[in-house]
Recover the amino acids of this structure.
C-alpha cells in the first residue's frame, strides 16, 4: 500500500473521526496538521482518528502542535501490539 498525500490523509481522518457528519470548521486547521503528522500512513491515520473521536475538541490543538503528544504515543503503542506478533512469526 502506498503512502497517502496530504489531501488523502485529511480526507481519511475526516471520514473516520466524524462518521456520517462533518468536522466543525473551527477544527479543520488542527485536523489538517494532525493528518500531516501521520506521515501518510493509513493505519496511523485510522488509529489517530479513533482516539480523536473520544477526546474533547479542545485537545485537538495540543495534538496538532505538540511534537510527541500522548495521543500519538497511544496510537503507536496500539499499532505495535497488532503488528509485532506478525513480525515475530517471520
Amino acid at each position: 500500500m502506498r503512502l497517502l498525500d496530504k489531501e488523502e490523509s485529511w480526507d481519511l481522518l475526516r471520514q473516520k473521526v466524524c462518521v456520517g457528519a462533518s468536522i466543525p470548521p473551527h477544527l479543520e486547521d488542527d485536523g489538517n496538521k494532525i493528518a500531516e503528522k501521520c506521515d501518510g500512513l493509513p493505519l496511523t491515520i485510522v488509529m489517530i482518528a479513533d482516539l480523536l473521536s473520544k477526546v474533547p475538541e479542545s485537545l485537538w490543538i495540543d495534538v496538532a502542535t505538540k511534537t510527541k503528544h500522548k495521543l500519538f504515543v497511544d496510537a503507536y503503542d496500539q499499532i505495535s501490539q497488532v503488528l509485532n506478533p506478525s513480525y515475530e512469526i517471520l
